[in-house]
Amino acid sequence: MTTSTTHLAGIIAATRDAVEADQANAQVAFQASAMSHDAVASTATLGPYRIEVDEPPALGGEAKAPNPVEYYLASLLSCQIVTYRFWAERLGIAVDDITARAEGDLDVRGFFGFDDAVRAGFQEVRVVVKVTGPETPERYRELQEAVDAHCPVLDLTRNVTPVSTRLEFD
After folding, report:
1. CB neighbours (10 Å) of residue 5?
2. pTM higher than 0.90 for the full model?
3. Where are the beta strands (DSSP E) in 64-120?
4. What integer best gives the mean pLDDT of the chain?
5. CATH of domain 67-159
6. For 162, how many CA atoms within 13 A lie in the half-sphere containing its CB?
């Protein structure tokens, strides 16, 4: 299945022009909010979108929705696909289709505080991206290198991102 991405060149050019005109145009702020319900479930609001979040019964939930680490994997894969599309356009690499899958290993001893030497998040995440199209494997490896260097969600995992939390009371 060939997907039309011709509009991406225009987005890249318009963004480049806007940033060159004023570096402040490079900064974008994203926002989210969440509200708890049931034992461990929540509803997150992302602009006009609402998503449900839950845990499996083994972690106190009812498995009515994906859990936070599953959403992380989905975010990573979706961001990879977006980044592949934009960088294929930038590099002039033809891509007919992209699929991706991921799995991660999480040791619950970190989450539950059973062993402080074990991190609370994934110990490892494995991603497989399948690209189809007319290019050589070398060109697709070039594309992968660009994606690995520029994928925002992958960057969140590979690099330390400062997070500050303020607790409010009612």
Report:
1. 14
2. yes
3. 97-106
4. 95
5. 3.30.300.20
6. 1
**Structural tokens at position 169:** 């009371």
Determine how many CB atoms are found less than 10 A away from the CB of residue 8.
16
Q: Are strands 49-53 and 97-106 parallel, antiparallel or unpaired?
A: unpaired
C-alpha separations of 134 from 14, 95, 98, 102 in Å? 28, 7, 13, 25
133: Cα within 13 Å, side-chain hemisphere: 23
Domain ranges of the chain: 28-66, 67-159
The two three-digit tokens of residue 7, written as one number: 């509009």
Q: Judge contact between 34 and 44, C-beta under 8 A.
A: yes
Q: Is 128 helix (H, G, I), strand (E, B) or coil?
A: strand
DSSP H or E stretch at residue 53: strand 49-53
**What pLDDT does residue 6 have?**
76
Angle (deg, nearest 10), helices 7-21 and 68-91? 90
Query: Cβ distance 30 to 45 under 8 Å?
Result: no
Q: Rounded to whole angstroms, how far apart are CA atoms 76 and 74? A: 5
Q: What are the φ and ψ backbone dihedral angles of 35, each rounded to 5 degrees? A: -130, 135
**Alpha carbon distance 60, 127 (integer Å):** 28
